[in-house]
Amino acid sequence: MRLLYDAVLPQSLAEEAPASVTLDRWDGIDEQDSALVRAAADRGHRGVVFYDRDSLEQPDLRRLASESGIALVAVEARDPIEAKIRVLRHLSRIRRMLVSHDCVLVLANEVRAYPS
Amino acid sequence: MKQPSPGLFAAALQALSSTAPRSRSLASTMTDLLDGLNTSHAESLPVAIRGVLPLLRGDPERLRFAVEIAVRLDLFEVAPAVAELADSTRDTELSLAAATLCSNPAVDQSLRTRIANMTETDRTELIRLDPLTVPETADEKYLYWQSWPGASTEGIPYPLAPVVVLDQGFDALGALRFAVSLDQAGAMVRRLAPESEVPNWFGSQTVLVCRSQTRNRVLNAYPRFPESQIIPEAPPTDDHQLGVLLRRVNTKLLGSQKLRFNEFPVDISTNLWDPEVFVAGVYPTRDIAFLAGATRSSLDYLRQRGLLIPLSSDPTRWAFRDLVAFRTWSYLKSVSRRKVSSSVVPSLSRFAGDREAVKLGVTSEGAVLVDRGDGWANVETGQRPLDQIITDVDDVFRPFPYGDGRVPALPNVGLNTPLHPTVLHGTPYLKGHRISAKGLASLHRRNGGRAILSAYPELANVSLDATVKVGYQLLASA
After folding, report:
1. C-beta atoms surrounding B240 within 10 Å
2. Which domains does chain A have, with CATH numbers?
3. Residue A30 DSSP symbol
4. Helix H segments across B103-237?
5. Are the Cβ atoms of B434 and A31 closer than 8 angstroms?
6. Closest Cα to residue B2, out of B41, B38, B50?
7. pLDDT at position B120 over 70
8. Pairing with A72, which of A116, B55, B64, B454 sits 20 to 30 Å away (CA)?
9. Domain span at residue B108?
10. How many Å is the Cα radius of gyration of chain A?
11. Between chains, do B456 and A51 touch, taking CB under 8 Å as contact?
């Protein structure tokens, strides 16, 4: 599974991911959130990982992602390093959730589907 | 090679002798050098720089700075002057620069031999000069592969900086501007002269931007160089197209080292009244309160009276237009001696944006007006206002005193700290990066600047203080 993650999440997230999951950090500049979704679709990613759940509260972004077949993952944490740790810890669960859900939220001890 | 005019010599000397190596970046100095040049000037600029370098001999710091510019842009034409200066001053940095410039096959072999004789035992210079030099240590191997990425028939075990080879048959000004852009984006620039041999530059992290005849020449010399790493296009002249070409180069890079695009923003609509922008954004209550300069209780008051309806209730979130409405009301209350009607709040929050609006205004009675370049008009009735005091929302976006404090400006909340409703769902961020102010502050809170640089090594030379401060203010408003 390949995921694109937002630049606010640390560079090291890609380096520390296990071989079964490819995590690519956004390498563009301060483009719109929708640009990540389009890039993920262009590059063959399963989804985009954003920092904090407010990213999932954008109706237009959710609609674009749905139309593009791209999943949205948001991780809630006190800071980006904690967010990285949570993503790495829950990668298997994220992967399983994305089989049947297109929008998930990663918390300290769980990964849950995010309602529309 | 075209000879520079006296004016160009003077301009080059002026630009290079007035650099401020300690306070200005190489990038900004390079940009200054190109300012006002036409194609003819650009063609002879390397020779002009070669001519004025000796005049900087008495100022070693500026001399090295100027030579560094030449190295970064692969202005091989200045190699003879740099070699001469390196020999006469015994400056090792100049000697290294001369070796780097002489790696370009357009440089006469006799000059390469002279540099090699000067260096004798300095292997870092020899490696730069000659791909036949065998690297021994790990550092030498890294330098070797970075200098001669095409010399390997197998994979290179090091992440290399991208190498972009530019065909010198293109328009000189466009090529130079693109070279500066590439350098700013983190690429190593190499200039391939039309008649020179094809050097060992063509590896897996090399992209070639060229004309068709140069493509054929390179592929004849390197049949295994992938066609997919060749861009048969001339560098454009406008900034937007430069940014697009940079992105195309970036897509050709297969390794982990990519280009940086800080200087080339894409077309985010800068018109905040554009419907797609005005209704976008997702803000928690505390952030709205901070950015509007008001209290959460004021927001609750408006919400309870149905004057401001959040985007969502669980959790409570607001859109950018709600921020504008709330802030405008706060502003009007701060500047007006009379009671301000709260009707301005629902009027603005219901406004769906206007693509043609260049200005947005409100009256204290709550009418919303737009100026599409031909004067104010009511958004609902289309009528021109008569004898009404109109508050331009641009004024609302300036910092203003409120209570004991000062409300930050919008959309530039702090130095290098803008917000845009469609970027990071509208939270203030570090300009040029998708890294939020809150994210930076939360890391700073963890372990100061070290935590930030550990997470974002690309920010090593970026000014962060103002953005971190905004982040702390947002975190404190929680």
Report:
1. 12
2. 2-113 (3.40.50.2300)
3. S
4. 109-119, 123-129, 138-147, 172-184, 212-221
5. yes
6. B41
7. no
8. B454
9. 1-130
10. 12
11. no
